[in-house]
Design a protein that fits this description.
- The structure is a single chain.
- About 40% of the residues lie in helices and about 15% in strands.
- The protein is of the alpha/beta class.
- The protein has a single domain, classed as TIM Barrel (Alpha-Beta Barrel), CATH 3.20.20.70.
- The relative contact order is 0.16.
Length: about 240
């Protein structure tokens, strides 16, 4: 886990609360699942810092995607982590999650599927046109990428901080960065950035069994204590 990124996220969260920014109170860190780098994301999700993280479930074209999405959705509900499903509004509705648009385009060719009450909508964007589309679709957060060079697409040209900042003015108040995000690079972003998406910076904890075990143990007992308290209240 990149602890410098977690510290940055806490600062962003505190600044948003202090300024009373409009829009949803979204977490500043988002784990983007990746079928190659993170075939089963559940261990990494269990280790995410509480109240700071959301999850974008991708795993496109993977056998058993629906079953895994259902399991991830149940886990996220237990841990209180916001979840959006990429590019599939029907699957998102089936598992009770929000939806993540691609380039601001309606998922499943049906924007009506996005109009579930209080449904969370996020979107990716790679251009000014994508940013405008995502804003028209009412996206609560727009991940503009690649902000910086990224391991996910080695050699691909990145926007750079100046270009990223210029494009995000098209969706000020809901812009997040994706691509090359870690504690050091996140601090190069303008202060209006609402958060970042990441893979490596948020799953590195999985390589540290001691850290992962401690976090999973803590989260498990928090969930258990909440369940016991709820059952006790129900009996009264």
């Amino acid at each position: 886990m990149d602890h410098r990124l977690v510290t940055w996220a806490r600062e962003v969260k505190a600044r948003q609360r202090r300024l009373g920014l409009p829009g949803r109170d979204l977490p500043p860190l988002w784990l983007f699942t990746d079928a190659l780098r993170l075939p089963d994301p559940r261990a990494a999700i269990a280790a995410l810092p509480r109240r700071l993280c959301g999850v974008v479930f991708r795993h496109d074209g993977v056998a058993g995607r629906a079953a895994l999405a259902k399991a991830v959705a149940q886990q996220c509900r237990t841990l209180g982590i916001p979840l959006v499903v990429a590019g599939d509004a029907r699957l998102a509705a089936a598992v009770g999650a929000g939806v993540h648009l691609r380039g601001g385009r309606p998922a499943n060719r049906g924007s009506r599927l996005l109009r579930r009450p209080a449904a969370l909508v996020t979107s990716s964007a790679h251009s000014a046109a994508d940013m405008r589309r995502a804003k028209r679709m009412g996206a609560d957060a727009v991940f503009l990428s690649p902000a910086l060079p990224t391991q996910s697409h080695p050699g691909a040209p990145a926007l750079g901080v100046v270009r990223w900042a210029a494009l995000t003015r098209l969706a000020r108040g809901r812009s997040m960065a994706l691509g090359g995000m870690e504690g050091r690079t996140a601090r190069r972003l303008p202060r209006w950035c609402r958060g970042v998406g990441a893979i490596g910076a948020l799953i590195a904890v999985a390589a540290d069994p001691c850290c992962l075990a401690a976090t999973v143990f803590r989260n498990y007992h928090k969930s258990s204590d909440q369940a016991i308290a709820a059952n006790g209240s129900a009996r009264q």
